[in-house]
Structure prediction request, 424 residues.
Amino acid sequence: MERKIKIGLIGLGTVGSGVFKTLKAFPDIEVTKIAVKNINKKRNIEGLDESILTDNPYEVVNDPEIDIVAELIGGIDPAYDLIVNAIKKGKHIVTANKELLAKKGEDLFNIASEYNKVILYEAAIAGGIPLIMPIKTILAGNKINKIKAILNGTTNYILTKMDVQGASYQDVLDEAQKLGYAETDPTGDVEGFDAAYKITTLATIAFKKRIKFENVYREGITNIRPEDMKAANEMGYKIKLIAFAQIDDNGKADVRVHPMLVPKSKTLAHIDYVTNAVTLSGHPVGDVTLSGPGAGEFPTASSVVGDILSIASEFGKTDYMLPMMRCNHSESAQMLDITETENKYYLSITANNKIGVIGRIGKACEENNISLASIVQKEFGSKNCADITVITELAKEKDMRKVIDIFNRDDSIISVNSLIRVQI
Prediction:
């Protein structure tokens, strides 16, 4: 009878609990040690033998019987050191740690290669949505050159509720925090860090070139207004936080996270609440969209357990496991700065309602190589102000920024309320 594959878990929070519960269904897999932050915490997990718990994660890393370590605590410290030590102790790694992969992935994959170990990380990008395995196997014959994705459930929930209720960002955030959809400190989600970590790794895998996290442009949703939601709807769009990545024929990559007006004719416009979705574009397949739960106990556990089983199935069969799933590229992509990108723009301006204002807006745009697709003015009545909404044609970001500077210095313009890019 073949021996059981022994697993060590680092972390028994939401995801760790889901992984433990799911692995109980596999008789050839045994969780033999679990590192937790508080060993005295009461846990209502059926079948959990508390004698395998430890508050010292290095007991998991150093245990000679453990074959695979699943790191499920997140962050850089101590996760990085734990994984490095586990690899050096002869263990394969499964992780759901998007920040660690974005910032330290290159180091970790190099160390894993040196010690002939595998790191799998399906759960680190989009929870329960299978992405990495399909890209490296079924889609391996494609040249993927563009990614458009909704990768953060918290921000998608907030934007959906703002759209449906006509409520302010702050009101919806407060509600999301009470319901547990948003953290007490929501910065990582609402300022786009979480999505930026994920698109960094996803673009690296899809484009077969390393993307440096520090070169990924990031902008959150905190300045989105109910008025923007209403205007977008009237013009045939929905506002979403989009993780975008594109690589041209010369190997120059444009990778960023920011709000976008997405046409209602596009799939991503209809991905609502906590659902995630990823559209991959390439040749010969064209466009492929994968959608599903991007977080949560069992969706994320599904990906973690899938990775564990993929590694476990290789034991005793080969000395070089899962070659297709290993990091096989070392060249870094040349990154396009956000100022050099071309986009369409939605612009909301409040101006004095007097003759010549529209002309001044048009003249500033014309002098900076920006063509207007539409311009709509609505009067504010007794305030003698006008709400002006502009949609541009394709324009360089650096030219758009020059125009915004002109508007900010113009006495006729009271405020530039919003500048949001439009998905092409």
About this structure: The longest helix spans residues 98-114. The chain has three domains: 5-124+297-323, 132-293, 339-422. The CA atoms of residues 165 and 239 lie 14 Å apart.
